[in-house]
Specification:
Layout (H helix, E strand, L loop, with lengths): L10 E3 L2 E3 L6 E6 L4 E7 L3 H18 L4 H17 L1 H12 L3 H7 L1 H14 L7 E4 L2 E9 L2 E5 L5 H14 L3 E5 L7 H11 L7 E3 L4 H9 L5 E5 L2 H12 L4 E5 L5 E4 L5 H13 L11 E5 H15 L20 H16 L3 E4 L14 E4 L6 H4 L6 E7 L2 H9 L6 E5 L3 H10 L4 E4 L18 E2 L6 H4 L2 E8 L9
Helix pairs in contact: 2-5, 2-7, 3-4, 4-5, 5-6, 8-9, 10-11
This protein binds NADPH dihydro-nicotinamide-adenine-dinucleotide phosphate.
NADPH dihydro-nicotinamide-adenine-dinucleotide phosphate binds next to helix 8, strand 10 and helix 9.
Length: 485
């Protein structure tokens, strides 16, 4: 290993690295080899107190900084992040196992986009003037205070930035807990923000397991909790936050449908299904894991998919020719293996892949199932791994009803060359982030988030501002006050 991914210390608080080895040790494992590459320690109560106190102090000052200056800090951070893209991508690859081919274009770059976007709109955030004849009301968009971010392990850098950029643009501070599985990159974001001019304490990183996340969700010093994680964790965090009436954003899981009609471009539909099932080894919340293909196209779709899957290159993730990496952890690999076995057991046809590789690390080849039916476990539960299920349908109405028959509602995609059908179908799909003849694009300019069991609130775009600020309305009376006595 040429690159040393070890962090300076576990936590980043009040503008400096902080270590406290009395917390529970968390080993950081390189998923491609299973090697332990670093150890961090879960935050103790003392570490958490330092983080909350410094965030509270910094937030009070930051709220007074002009929005234009706040924006400049974020924009500078975006620039530094882009300059360091290679080093950040290498670190992300060590943390997650995702191939460098991906991390170079989808992680720190996406984080930088968020910092740049919210940096750019910070000074355009205004209230409004509401005329009432002689009297009037004006509204002020105020920060919430200290926000807590809790991250999943699939896009660690992106998740930090998607939460922190709008939070800071609105005048909040952030205490962020990365997933225990991928604790490294958030620390680099902290270094960058400080270097870009963010005051010490504005952005803090604390490590830990679920119990540290739970402490963030319940601490009275925290005004808002933003979680990216699974639906069961989302329910727990939402309930915990309700105890203190905190604001929440919940970016949770999904079991999203992709509808491919007979008149779709076969190559585009297959390509999008590859992106929407196998990119990041399938560990993406919005993946279109239920691929409904119309009867006339299904056989050709499966055949072409199996053919293109032969081009998956499973190798050293640091080699830019590798385009498919390991699962993030031994646990995740076992979960995925369990689902593949269940698919076979329940009668789905495993057309390709789904094998564990006989090498160190957490490797499973991308799996293609045909003949999947709605009641099978692999069609109902979020797998969060490289398992694509093809389900056949005949009519548009049937496809829509079956696509919507899930407790989730994160994403949905439609492939057809009939534009009226595309819009008609999308209009009836119950999902927050939808695609027509494309899949899984997530530009910062567009709102991202789910409906139903997939979450609450939106990240990215101007919509995120509503979730990191609150309105104060001020009634101004110009005449005398008339009272009854
Ligand atoms: P988890 O729900 O297991 O964990 C998410 C985070 O919550 C982790 O940091 C975890 O800590 C923490 N946590 C666990 N329990 C609690 C608790 N009781 N209170 C507070 N925090 C807690 O998800 P994964 O990390 O396994 O990520 C995969 C999931 O994330 C999938 O369901 C996926 O769909 C979803 N996801 C959603 C996205 C979206 O934008 N909608 C994007 C990416 C992923 P610890 O690491 O110690 O467990």
């Amino acid at each position: 290993m040429t690159f040393d991914p070890k962090p300076t210390a576990s936590h980043f608080i009040d503008g400096a690295y902080v270590e406290d080895t009395s917390g529970t040790p968390i080993e950081v494992v390189y998923p491609a080899t299973g090697e332990v590459i670093a150890t961090v320690y879960a935050a103790t109560k003392d570490v958490l107190d330092q983080a909350f106190d410094s965030a509270t102090r910094a937030q009070a000052e930051w709220a007074k900084v002009s929005p234009r200056e706040r924006g400049r800090v974020l924009t500078r951070a975006a620039q530094i992040m882009r300059e360091r893209n290679r080093a950040l991508s290498e670190l992300e690859t060590f943390d997650t196992g995702k191939p460098l081919q991906e991390t170079l274009v989808a992680d720190a770059t996406s984080g930088a986009d968020a910092l740049e976007y919210f940096g750019g709109i910070a000074n355009g955030l205004t209230g409004e003037h509401i005329p009432l004849g002689e009297d009037w009301v004006y509204t002020v968009r105020e920060p919430l205070g200290v926000c807590a971010g809790i991250g999943a392990w699939n896009y660690p850098t992106q998740i930090v930035c998607w939460k922190t950029a709008p939070a800071l643009a609105c005048g909040n501070a952030m205490v962020f807990k990365p997933s225990e599985t991928t604790p490294l990159s958030a620390l680099k974001v902290a270094e960058i923000l400080l270097e870009a001019g963010a005051p010490a304490g504005l952005f803090n990183v604390v490590q830990g397991l679920g119990e540290v996340g739970a402490a963030l969700a319940t601490d009275p010093r925290v005004a808002k909790v933003s979680l990216t994680g699974s639906a069961p964790t989302g329910k727990k965090v939402y309930a915990a936050a309700a105890g203190e009436m905190k604001h929440v954003t919940m970016e949770l899981g999904g079991k999203s449908p992709m509808l491919v009609f007979d008149d779709a471009s076969l190559e585009d539909a297959v390509g999008a299904a590859i992106l929407g099932n196998f990119y990041s080894s399938g560990q993406i919340c919005s993946n279109g894991t239920r691929v409904f293909v119309q009867k006339g196209l299904r056989a050709r779709f499966v055949e072409r998919m199996a053919e293109r899957m032969k081009d998956a290159v499973l190798g050293d993730p640091m080699d830019e020719a590798t385009n498919f990496g390991p699962l993030v952890s031994a646990r995740q690999m076992e979960i995925v293996e369990g689902y593949i076995a269940k698919g076979v057991e329940e009668g789905a046809r495993l057309v390709a892949g789904g094998e564990r590789l006989d090498r160190d690390g957490f490797w499973i080849t991308p799996a293609l199932f045909d003949g999947v039916t709605d009641e099978m476990t692999i069609a109902r539960e979020e797998i969060f791994g490289p398992v694509l299920s093809v389900l056949e349908f005949e009519t548009e109405e049937e496809a829509i009803a079956r696509a919507n028959d899930t407790p989730y509602g994160l994403s949905a995609g439609v492939f057809t060359s009939d534009f009226t059908r595309a819009h008609r179908v999308i209009g009836q799909l119950r999902a927050g982030s939808c695609f027509i003849n494309s899949y899984n694009d997530a530009p910062v300019e567009a709102p991202f988030g789910g409906v139903k069991g997939s979450g609450v609130g939106r990240e990215n775009s101007k919509a995120a501002i509503q979730h990191y600020s609150q309105l104060k309305s001020v009634y101004v009376r110009m005449g005398a006050v008339e009272a009854p006595f």
